[in-house]
Amino acid sequence: MPKKTLTLALMDPPYESANTTTAFRIISSALKKGINVNVFAYEGAVSLSMKDQAPHANPVKGTTVEQEDHPTTKAFVSSLLGIGKEDPLLTWVNCGLCVDERGAGNCVEGAKRGGPADFLKMAQESTNTLVIPTK
Amino acid sequence: MTRYLFIESRDPFESRDAQFIVHTASALKQRGDDVTVFLVQNGVLAARKNARASHLPQLAEIGVNLLADDFSLRERGIRGEEINREIRESSIDNLVDMLVQDNTKAIWH
What we know:
The complex is a heterodimer of chains A (135) and B (109).
Chain A: E1 5-10, H1 18-32, E2 36-41, H2 65-68, H3 73-83, E3 90-95, H4 96-102, E4 111-114, H5 116-124, E5 128-132
Parallel strand pairs in A: 1-2, 1-5, 2-3, 3-4
Helix pairs in contact in A: 1-3
Chain B: E1 3-8, H1 19-30, E2 34-39, H2 56-61, E3 65-69, H3 70-75, E4 88-90, H4 92-99, E5 104-108
Parallel strand pairs in B: 1-2, 1-5, 2-3, 3-4
């Protein structure tokens, strides 16, 4: 039986929408089932993998960075890329034009630069494609 | 027969366009297609028995499969016994299984 592949298009920027959490859950579940996953990050979603994100303390509560243990989307993306290193494979492509607009070129290891043509190819070669648009 | 999988993330009490799901899912079901609506995020708020204005019972009546993400239910403090009996608790793992079934079209809303 041929290997199954799921493609997701993401558009929401980090820390804005529960869509991102659900997308990460779908990717994680698919990889754990041995399904290859393609992600095409478009518009604000290119910042999900931005390396410059930093967890922060909470001066209102008086807690430290360590106590807050603030989750960053770059850490989730890195972790997913770690699970999907080879078999199953997670391919993460950021839209290059969207990256340039946002100055989000410094991304975590494993995330690649591409364009809408990559998304078309991914969709054509996948078992299914799910587009998660902004609201 | 095509399988249609709607993933409803919106709270129908906040977004009036949740009617899109009712109209589209109903039309596809009446055409003889297999239709599932998977509720996730604030979409699960319509699954409560007490949500009297919910659009879901009319979908159940015509045979649309209604599933609600267990994680989203727990996040919102909705217990199993509070869910309308036509809606089954499901999981993201189940959603992924449905997504990779042959001949399935997935629509996020």
